[in-house]
């Protein structure tokens, strides 16, 4: 290969085996390449390394071409190449050939000296630097190599260790923090209020940005030992720890607390504190007053209305009902931005006497708004007419000026603005009217736009006398079905008991020491589930919570379940028999998957007066919040106790209670099947 390259470049050929001949290509390699490159090039060429087992063998083995072992085949090739080179030299001019001969010896010995020097250095022998110098040089190189290796190892191991630490943190530390959070979300706090059977105002809303709804309460406190002087206040409690976020002293007892208003000038949510003679808007985070509006004889919660004035803020409406019979039920409009009254109160001559119904905002299929209200009956008045009677002008928004011909045709005459929805017969007065919306309740009637939109466009449930009716929105609130039952003292609760996607109704009523509970199919008004319990003497709403199965879990208070005796229709508790004191009240959880099983989550002798449920999305959990009136000795007025319980934690400690034919069903179930189901049950938003 070298000979061919030499002929192509027209340069002197490859050095032969005789002394004095040299190869310019080899010489160039020797001058330019590093010591390590020379070793690499010579190793395959020699067949054996200079530091091989041959060591410093005979000159015959190291002679010839730099001590290379020459085989027979190599010898023949070299002779052919030498003959070709001799012919090429003969053709050159004599002067050039002479010049090359003059330089040949010098270059050859220079090449041999450098080559020998390198050989001695490789074998550790004495060279130009001496044996000792080369040993030190090799030791320094080894140290540098070790340092490089250490650095490379560090660059590899440090990221590996960091990644391992991160994995361990994610696997162990974060779950521990989550568990710690679940523990902190369970708390109990005694307030200095004077407890009683009247439910205090209760609302839930997240105001501190931790994605968990905080607790708002209206509290009545005593300032002396005789409890003759009282102070009224509104208190906000942290959802995580139960600590007081803020407390505001009021001149009257707070009847309702509603949160969710949004102002462009206030970054925090706004809450309304509704008393008997005034409404105050406060910053939900700090409790600072934003505005106050004086309105006498307030009887209802506030209703969120569309913007009536064109100021880009929703407005409000409340119902007032003076104690004096000379005055009628009135509807009052309030500016949602400033709290100023919009015109005058609009009175309505409501002849019936009974429970206050509403007021509620309702939107027809044509997009026209009506207010539903009444006293033992249900009436409707268009929002357009109310605003016109209060201010003498039409709403600023064109959409609110429309009329619904279908609804207007239900008026008795053209001179009346009232539409009759339900009129009582005999003693069947209307007791409850509520939108058929999941999660809706007394303590979950906030003023956010989303909740308001869902309720105004839903079907409605009417409870009167001993009947429950479903009123359909698409049929102008005409009934779809009617279910006959005993008179209900508590508001129905909507939830999914079966899997048809239609909300069902949980209702309860008590008589003669027995509490009866029913679940009615929302599709056709038939009974889906029923059970009887010893009456707990409580008037507290049931709660329905959406679960991971797509169905709802129902939470309700009762005493021990009543089991029917064999071949006997009467219950184990005779009517009229007083229940022994102290009465144990128990919190039960019912899930449709196992309708004959109840999970007892808590038991107490305290009187629960109100409750609410909130969700914890990150933990897939829900908290059950109760306000109880604790029993105090020596006739001392009781105090309110607020308790927050994690439902998943309560389920793990709950006791299984079989009802109805549950004992027969239990034999068909696998051991631990029910417990396993409830342990894996999670909760989600409606």
Automatic annotation (TrEMBL):
Record field: transmembrane: 154-174
Keyword Transport in record: no
Segments of skewed composition (Basic and acidic residues): 88-103, 110-124
Keyword Membrane: yes
Biased composition (Gly residues): 125-134
Annotated spans, Disordered: 1-136
GO CC terms, sorted: membrane
Subcellular location: Membrane
Membrane-protein topology: Single-pass membrane protein
Coarse class of the protein's main subcellular location: membrane
Compositional bias segments (type: Acidic residues): 29-39, 75-87
Classification via Pfam families: Beta-prop_FAM234A_B
Name the record gives this protein: Family with sequence similarity 234 member B
